[in-house]
Amino acid sequence: LESLDVEGIRQQFPILQREFDGQQVVYLDNAATTQTPDPVVDAMSDYYRQYNANVHRGIHHLSQEASIAYEEAHDRVAEFINADGREEVIFTKNTTESENLLAYSWGLNELEPGDEIVLTEMEHHASLVTWQQIGKRTGADVKYIRIDDSGRLDMDHARDLITDDTEIVSAVHVSNTLGTVNPVGELTDLAHEHGALSFIDGAQAVPNRPVDVEEIGADFYAFSGHKMAGPTGIGVLYGKQELLEDMEPYLYGGGMIRKVTFEESTWGELPWKFEPGTPPIAEAVGLHAAVDWLEDIGMDRIRAHEQELAAYAYDRLDAEGDVEIYGPEAGSDRGGLVSFNLEGVHAHDLTSILNDHTVAVRAGDHCTQPLHDKLGVPASTRASFYVYNTREEVDKLVAALDDARQLFA
Ligand code: PMP
């Protein structure tokens, strides 16, 4: 693989030139949100300047242009993840809303006592809390596939846990805490062998690697625009068309109906049936531009760049001797992030020291509290990489650890 022109890429992100106290920002908080390149910002500003109007095919020119752009954004996303077409791509607010859409529309209607929902111990709260609540409301049990000491899923346990009582297997594609890349195709096959559905949380996968929903075989798949060089306020729920056809919407209103009388309503076509009200139009335009931008660079190269940086960060941190790193060793089943703790220093203190060096990382439980309980730590510090990050930035992170040792350890 040809390596990236990182300098050229960085020039499309004015925010990366920002300085605090005379030091240029080192942005390593990409698993929380990525920065937005000029072409994406320009596409959105062009929308507001040139063809802002409500969609749903108004008669006037501006609405027609906005409607076409909004619809084409669905087509572009469908192509990007290899879905069959726009019918399978629902725009939501974010991954969290995508998960809730599925849980309310499908889960509340289909699940009953005796049914089982199988999750993994490394689920983000977006799916863990959602399925936990749906379990409580329907009487379905929630079970968790264990992780082993290396931070990978125990697939023998998965095979024990997924049975004919399982109705859905919900798994994170790439863990936002451990970096583990899970065998989501295998989990989906296991679900299907037992007549269950699969839902994959791809919030940390779609931004960073080629994702083909057909190859995975997933019934449902979710991700967020703001983690893939796109805007906030837009996310995606992919679903197989025949499943979406059978599902009841859980949000109602304008734009999603076929016919309404004072007594009854019927629903419109996919995907609009699940997108009532005025949708995120500028954001859809931005997401379209972000997909174009990512594919121009190439998802294979993006993955290679991030894996290389994560491996470098892993090795450098590991060599320090007093750093505990969570998740698998750097390799082909690790994504572009590293969560760790420095011995004797709380993650929040460390992160604040790093901020003194304008190194932006995240401290906390990363919305995986039960996983942190299992790891036996209340919090960790997470450095997460994207296309514009460099080895020099990793070096700055590692160099700043000394200050933390002097102050706290
Ligand atoms: N799942 C995973 C694995 C994530 O990393 C995140 C974001 N931290 C989410 C879900 C939730 O994404 P959002 O906040 O965009 O809904």
Automatic annotation (TrEMBL):
Descriptive protein name: cysteine desulfurase
Molecular functions per Gene Ontology: cysteine desulfurase activity; pyridoxal phosphate binding
Enzyme Commission code(s) on record: 2.8.1.7
Residues annotated as domain Aminotransferase class V: 26-397
Keywords: Pyridoxal phosphate, Transferase
Cofactor: pyridoxal 5'-phosphate
InterPro entries recorded: Aminotrans_V_dom, Cys_dSase_SufS, PyrdxlP-dep_Trfase, PyrdxlP-dep_Trfase_major, PyrdxlP-dep_Trfase_small
Pfam families: Aminotran_5 (PF00266)
Source organism: Natronobacterium haloterrestre (Halobiforma haloterrestris)
Biological processes annotated in GO: cysteine metabolic process
Top enzyme category: transferase
Highest taxon above the source species: Archaea
Catalytic reactions on record: (sulfur carrier)-H + L-cysteine = (sulfur carrier)-SH + L-alanine
